[in-house]
Amino acid sequence: MAEIDKEAVVAVLNKILESELAGVVRYTHYSFLVFGFGRIPIVAWLRQQAGESLVHAQQAGEWITTLGAYPSLAIGPLLDSHTFDIASILRESLEAENGALELYRELLAHVEGRSVALEEFARQMIHTEELHAGEVDKMLRRPGSAATAPHRGMGPAE
Ligand SMILES: [Fe+2]
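A: This is the predicted complex of the input protein with fe (ii) ion.
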């Protein structure tokens, strides 16, 4: 089995760590800004996402130290559109999640056929993040329509 390019793998893992930490902050921040009838389940969902992002950040960080490298203390980009409506919050989250998904795909490209454990990790995360993006996409659809939300480019435009 070919060796992994440790430096390249750690660089991607650090980007993943930063992006997941940004997710913790973003979901927590948004969870303060939900008002109206749907508040309770939506706040619970956002906090659950913050918790999941934290677990993902911890997994990426553990991999970095497993590889004998130093984990980044930086945090990924944080957008705040200053909008309180749920659709904007979800659209922003979906955009960020798609960015994270790209990083996991990048990780997979670096480790595929070179490290069973890291490949397993990358594939598992791609699976998790794709299901997550699909769930957010469903939340953004109009009730009564099964087509994917137009911004994902997977379904017909509205
Ligand atoms: Fe994640």
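The chain has one domain: 6-142. The pocket of fe (ii) ion is lined by residues 20, 23, 53, 56, 100, 129 (CB under 6 Å).
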